[in-house]
Design a protein that fits this description.
- Helices cover 26% and strands 45% of the residues.
- It has a single domain, classed as Hypothetical Protein Pfu-838710-001 (Beta Barrel).
- The mean pLDDT is 94.
- It starts with a strand and ends with a helix.
- The protein is an alpha+beta fold.
Length: 173
Amino acid sequence: MSHLNMEIKADTDDLAFLRAILLSQNAVAKGQIHQVDTYFNCANGRLKLRESSDEAVLIHYNRESQTGIQQSLVSMVPIANPARMKDVLEKALGIKIIVSKKREIYWIENVKFHLDEVEKLGKFVEIEAIDYEGTIGKEKLSAQCENYLKLLKIPAQNLIPDSYSDLLIRLNA
């Protein structure tokens, strides 16, 4: 089953500033984790295996690269044996790129915030307004993203249209 995300990604120099604002808004801190996303070649959308110390999830999503708020349709399934899954997907599809990052996660209601330090790329913030049940709607999710964009004082010139995988592919080209 898929769910709707409206999301924004931006470049930042000051994760401490963003963290302080989130905490001042009573954001629930979920801690810091190391995540490795292995992207596979995929004819439709994007397919990645996300591994961290506490879980592994296979994620498929469709999202256009555009500056500002982006819509994603996301499907996820927990993976019990990520090493075997990665091996099967690598043999079947081939690995496109691997993204490694330190990520701090915060929540305010249905909005998830990522404060990321991505290897070879730098520091970023992501805002994801999520509608798991299909009851919130695209307009409200977009409004939530806009509100938090203003609250976090993220300038328009810092918005990033591409995924970390696309940025790394360009960097490695």
